[in-house]
């Protein structure tokens, strides 16, 4: 889209006609990840200053949705899947399979471009980490987190998420 190449702009700076034209000219791919896994990754990367996962989660909850960091903000508020018709939604944990499909659809050679991904190991590791981290949280924190991410849990099939229980 011609205006996009002149300077970095946010989608909200365009009017509805421009947004529709712009979005219609691109293949739109949304990468999604279980919100609880996003919290764990953010904590492990040291993006929170808390000494424990439980206190980090409390910081997240206290910040609220509108003041939260992009690292843990609900995806629905970041990516607007109800307003933008994405062509593909790629789930973390199925990257190898889904990225291969996307590359084939784009007419690209899958083998040379696709990084080595071990989805089953990633899924097992996050399952184990989730069990450990979830056990640190109080019942109230678990309930509040489920509420905080309720729209993500409704919009995407995170059936095995600890937050959807």
UniProtKB/TrEMBL annotation:
Q: Which InterPro entries does this one have?
A: Carb_sulfotrans_8-10, Sulfotransferase
Which EC class does it fall in? transferase
User: What topology does it adopt in the membrane?
Assistant: Single-pass type II membrane protein
Asked if Transmembrane helix is a keyword of the record, the answer is: yes
Which GO BP terms, alphabetically? Answer: carbohydrate biosynthetic process; dermatan sulfate proteoglycan metabolic process
Q: What is its main location?
A: Golgi
**Record keywords, A-Z:** Carbohydrate metabolism, Glycoprotein, Golgi apparatus, Membrane, Signal-anchor, Transferase, Transmembrane, Transmembrane helix
Pfam families from the entry?
Answer: Sulfotransfer_2
User: Could you identify this protein by its name?
Assistant: Carbohydrate sulfotransferase
Q: Which organism is this protein's natural source? A: Hippolais icterina
What is the gene called? Chst8_0
């Amino acid at each position: 889209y011609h205006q996009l190449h002149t300077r970095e702009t946010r989608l909200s700076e365009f009017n509805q006609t421009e947004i529709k034209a712009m979005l219609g000219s691109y293949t739109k791919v949304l990468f999604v990840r279980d919100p609880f896994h996003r919290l764990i990754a953010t904590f492990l990367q040291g993006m929170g200053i808390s000494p424990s996962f439980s206190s980090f989660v409390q910081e997240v909850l206290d910040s609220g949705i509108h003041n939260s960091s992009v690292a843990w903000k609900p995806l629905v508020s970041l990516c607007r899947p109800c307003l933008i018709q994405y062509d593909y939604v790629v789930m973390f944990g199925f990257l190898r399979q889904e990225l291969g499909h996307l590359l084939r659809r784009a007419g690209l050679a899958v083998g040379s471009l696709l990084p080595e991904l071990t989805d089953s190991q990633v899924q097992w590791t996050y399952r184990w980490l989730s069990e450990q981290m979830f056990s640190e949280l109080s019942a109230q924190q678990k309930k509040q987190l489920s509420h905080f991410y309720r729209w993500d849990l409704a919009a995407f099939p995170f059936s095995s998420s600890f937050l959807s229980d």
